[in-house]
Amino acid sequence: MGERDEPEVVGRRVQRLRVERGLTQRQLAEPTYTPAYVSTLEAGRVRPSDEALKHIAERLGVDFEELATGRPARLVTDLRLRLTEAQRALATGAAEEAALQYTGLLAEAQEHGLMEEQATALLGLGECGIDTGDLDTALRCFERAEAALAHAPLPARVPALRGRAVAHYLAGELRYAVYLLESTLDELNRGGLHDPDALLLLYASVIGPYMDMGAQARAAQAAEFALALAPQVGDPALVARMHRSVARTLLAEGRLAEADSSLAKASELYRQLQLRTELANCHWMRGYVYAQNGELERAEDELKQAQAMLSAQRAALYSSQVAVELADVLHRRGKSEEAAALLHTVLGDLSPERGAVHSAGAHRLLGIIAEDARDTEAAEEHYVRALSLLERAGAAGDLADLCRMLGDLLRRTGRVEAALDAYRTGLGHRTAPGTTTLGPAPAQPPL
């Protein structure tokens, strides 16, 4: 039933509550136990079983948890209700408001030694950091959440592991992000731990890093797995709101177990609501595939759907990344001015520490648009900026092609030696389409 106080502390608590209620040791013990057992328990000379404490708690008219830990059960349920409220704020895009709520709730959970609630608050703070772009804070929170859940089963630790991976990915550390996600997927699937929600979260999160590393085949497969695993709920926000309201009513009536049950359902639905951000990645991937196949109109539709889903969640970093892909499609459809305007907006939202690969993608595309307009000076400036960002992030999938483009531009303007240097840099990063040096793909789920 979880951690409890030491036997002598529990014993003193039992004795105090028994005396307050005017009960004898015999009245407390019967019909299942003896007065001698109660005497030994109150003296702290025996560690009572869960069954014994449940019996005594019922006779004393208190909750088992309050008797075992000294914490009123209502306090814990109320804390869980407020954690669900913070989760609602985060799921509906109010990340800053949610961060304030989670910070206060974390302090309360720490004060009362509630490890599970601490982990929930830390995960929430980590997600707030991801949404607002505060990646250092996000990473620290996910690491602390993972430590708090160290003894929990792997599926329960997946949100913290995935959070760490996403923070590393957005900071430009692609290979380590993929390592974290793939090794967790492999452990889940090989170990028979086929938790659909955990798998969906991991597969949806690994699509972006795969794409940036040039592993399109793995990205496409991950997208298919994610879409197959996606939970089917009509309107999770609406159902969650109902469960939250029910929980408040039950809590007011003192029906704590039923309130906890409703809160668990509400919390799960809000978590599914947050998965919309992850599922937007799948539309993003489909848009990319359509673009590669030359189906530009379908690609534009998919990418705009992904961007709308992400903007609704106020997921600024992800939204900016999709915007780069969308700008590429717009340019290829002859809408270069619209594409350039979108890219300049994106560059205002990104930085080398926040979305380096997509900042590079934006500069690369602006360079192409500048070349089309015969503005070679601006094109070269954008290509050089993109090259610097990609080298720092280790995104080999795009780097070789960019070096070729820069080399061609330099050669056309008569700078042959500089062009050769660019070509040599590109050869050092040459990668076959759809491959990386990541090793074997992780084991697959039994779909």
TrEMBL record:
Coiled-coil portions: 256-316
GO molecular function, a single term: DNA-binding transcription factor activity
InterPro entries the record matches: Cro/C1-type_HTH, Lambda_DNA-bd_dom_sf, TPR-like_helical_dom_sf, TPR_rpt, TransReg_Diox_bact_type
SMART domains assigned to the protein according to its UniProt record, in alphabetical order: HTH_XRE (SM00530), TPR (SM00028)
Keywords attached to this entry: Coiled coil, DNA-binding
Annotated region described as Disordered, given as residue ranges: 427-447
Gene Ontology cellular-component terms listed: cytosol
Comp. bias intervals (Low complexity): 431-441
Domain HTH cro/C1-type: 14-67
Pfam family, one: TPR_16
Protein's recorded name: Helix-turn-helix domain-containing protein
